Structures are given as structure tokens and as C-alpha cells.
Amino acid sequence: MTEGAAREVGDGVDREATLRTLTDGTLEVTGRLVEASNGTFFGRVTRDDHVLECVYKPVRGERPLWDFPDGTLAARERASYLVSEAAGWHVVPPTVLREGPFGFGMAQVWIDVDVDAPQVAVVPAGQAPDGWFAVVEAVDVEDRPVVLLHRDSPELRALALFDAVVNNADRKGGHLLPTGGAVLGCDHGLTFHEEVKLRTVLWGWADAALEPGERRTLERLQGRLAAGPLHDALAELLTRRERAALSERVAELLVSGRMPDPGDRWPTIPWPPL
Ligand SMILES: Nc1ncnc2c1ncn2[C@@H]1O[C@H](COP(=O)(O)OP(=O)(O)O)[C@@H](O)[C@H]1O
Ligand SMILES: [Mg+2]
Question: Which residues of the chain have pLDDT under 50?
């Protein structure tokens, strides 16, 4: 975090001020996230004496994909944020749509991650510690069996349920942002497809019974999808069919009472998984 940048997530943060600065502040690009597959930039937004760091993804930098319509990823990132907020998950950093130095796109508050709190790991097969789920078996470069693990925690489980709802096709390890005890997620451009495309490393709760609190969250979200500010905002961001599919996924989760299962669908793990 650069000097002067405020902490923008967690308790006691003025969310309205964050959104105002992110939306109306002056956006400067200060770097490029070189590992990122799309035109993804690191930037700084300044409004009076409020400074925050952000990710900026201009629509123009979106790489065409065979399965998602061109130029729609930024809107999906904004829709993901709105769904996370409306349901009460708060697992997506504040995300807005706005103009920037390379044109219209999305800006999202940068999260300083706790490097000491990894959420996924690869270990030799048979050595999964307590408190972790082994989700994928593989072999390493020297042909030794290894397993991909993720933590078993309520924070990560909330993210897994959020992913099921938004139909996230790209929940890899690097898209998990542990910070101050919470776990947030980033890179929600590949979401809200009409067809089931859930691709995630968080399969530890596959087919687990929903907990009462999770049911209440889904019921609250169901109401907010039907009418009101969330409903109206999503109408500007997603197609009618994508919105119908979203409501159906929520309804199906409530009917089945279970977290999704990969079944024999393919692929269900993003590539690369980390
Ligand atoms: N809001 C954020 N806070 C902290 N780190 C982030 C944030 N957004 C992205 N990153 C980091 O930058 C990397 C690239 O961003 P990502 O959104 O995945 O771009 P791309 O769409 O190009 O894959 C992520 O894997 C993550 O490590
Ligand atoms: Mg990414």
C-alpha cells in the first residue's frame, strides 16, 4: 500500500466514501499487472485528500473469448460486486464502472493480501494437514503424486457459495485475497453465463448440505433479485437470460439444499488452478 492510501475494506471503513472516490476520483495508471491475461492495470484514484489504489481493466483490453460475448467482462465484475453486497457476503472489493486513461472499464479497490494466510497449497499426496480439503490429485514435474488443497473455513465457504450463485468460471488460487481474517475474491469477469460453467478449486464442500445461515442469505438474495435496486442495477449489466439463469441458480440451490457438485460436467477446475 502506498503512503497516504487508506485501508478500504473491513470494519469501520466508510464504504460510501470509497465508492465515491473510486467512481469520481482522478484515475492514474501506475503499473501493469504483467501476469494478467487481459489489459489489467494497477492504478491510483485521488479525490481531494482521499487516495486509494485500484485495479483498472479497460473494456478495450478485454481479450476475446469463445464463450463470453466481447466487451462484457467489466460489467460482469460490477454485477459480481453488487450481488456479493446485496446478499451480505461482502467478498468482492468495491468495484465500479468508469472512464479511465484507456477508456471505459472497471475499477476495483486493491486489497493488500496477507501473504502468511495462503488459502490453497500443493503438497505431496497423503500429507494433507487437518483443516484443509484435498481437491485435485496430480503429479509434479518429477512425476511424484501431489494434491491441491484449499482451507476449510467459513470465509472460504462463503466465497464458494457466492461462486455457485454468480456461476464463476475462473476461481483459481490466485483469485483469492486473504486480508485481515476475511477472504475476498477478484477477477470476476467470467461470471453469469447462462450455462453452468462453475470452474473452481473450491470443491471441498461439493454436495454439502446448506447451513441455515446460507439458506437465509440465498432467500434474502432471491428477494433482492426479484425487485428493487439490485434488480434494476443488474438489468443494466446482464442480459435478461443471464438474469433469469441467476435467479434459477439461487432457486435450485434452495430446492436442493446442497452446494453444487462437479458431477460429470467438464471442465470443473480452472487452468492453471493456482
Ligand atoms: N482487487 C485486487 N486486489 C489485490 N490483488 C488483485 C486485485 N485484482 C487483481 N489482483 C491480483 O492481480 C492478478 C491479476 O488480476 P486479474 O483480475 O486476475 O486479471 P486478469 O483478468 O487479467 O486475469 C490477480 O490474480 C491477483 O493476484
Ligand atoms: Mg486472473
Answer: 1-6
61 in any annotated domain: yes
The alpha carbon of 92 and the centre of ligand 2 are apart by a number of angstroms equal to 14
Does any domain span residue 26? yes
Name residue 234's amino acid.
Answer: L
pLDDT tens digit string along 234-247? 999 999 999 999 99
CA 65 from centroid of its chain's CA atoms = 19
- What's this model's pTM, rounded to 2 decimal places? 0.94
Query: Does 90 reside within a domain?
Result: yes
Identify the residue whose C-alpha is closest to ligand 1 atom 9.
Answer: 186
Flag whether 35 is in a domain.
Answer: yes
Q: Please provide the average confidence, as pLDDT, over all residues in the chain.
A: 92
What is the CA 86 to chain-centroid distance, rounded?
14
Instruction: Name the closest ligand to CA 91.
Output: 1
111 within ligand 1 shell (Cβ under 6 A) = yes
How many angstroms separate the alpha carbon of residue 163 from the centre of ligand 1? Answer: 16
